[in-house]
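Repro:
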Amino acid sequence: MKRYSHLFFDLDRTLWDFQTNSRQALQELYLTFELESRGISNVHDFILKFEEINESLWAAYRMGNLHKRQLRSMRFYKTMESFGCKDERMCRSMGDMYIEISPVKTGLFPNTHETLDYLAGNYRMHIITNGFEEVQHLKLKNAGLTPYFDLIMTSELASARKPDPVIFQLAMQKVGASAPDALMIGDDLIADIGGARSLWMDQVFFNPEGVLHEEEITYEIKDLIELKAFL
């Protein structure tokens, strides 16, 4: 079995359960801003519309076509606009509150701590994430994940976003890793898997939903505990 020295993890949707934590934050926003009185009778509809718009705007952000401040407010403005509300001031407040409360949520995927405890004694572990600098550090701290990782490489710190090879190269340079002794673990076939493959780095596709694909991947898992089978 190939021996790795460095494990690079994505954070959102790989360790930190973005969907669960985000939905809890959105439910709080729905109540705080009394969105039922704004014509949104169902919180579920609000959440689904936000997730649809947020995903499309994050794609634009990853491509460098959107600034983070624009992303923060625009995703709520476009969501509320779809329900007939065009209150820009309120949407900016919603964007700010979402950034404040979502990193406080601590939902993780099953077996996160157990798996990291197992790996910690044998590997140096790091984070490579496209998330915002201040937000990602808060997520890690609040969820008790910070002590596991030597390096937290955000797209803001690197001035590059996955799958740009620059962010992977900078992370490896900072910790003294090379592609042959590094392994990337993430949930995104383009950002994580494709980005790592472009540098000939082995990859683990975290695929809890069993998404069908045709990508060639070094390893694929549905539960983080499966890492113990080959690490």
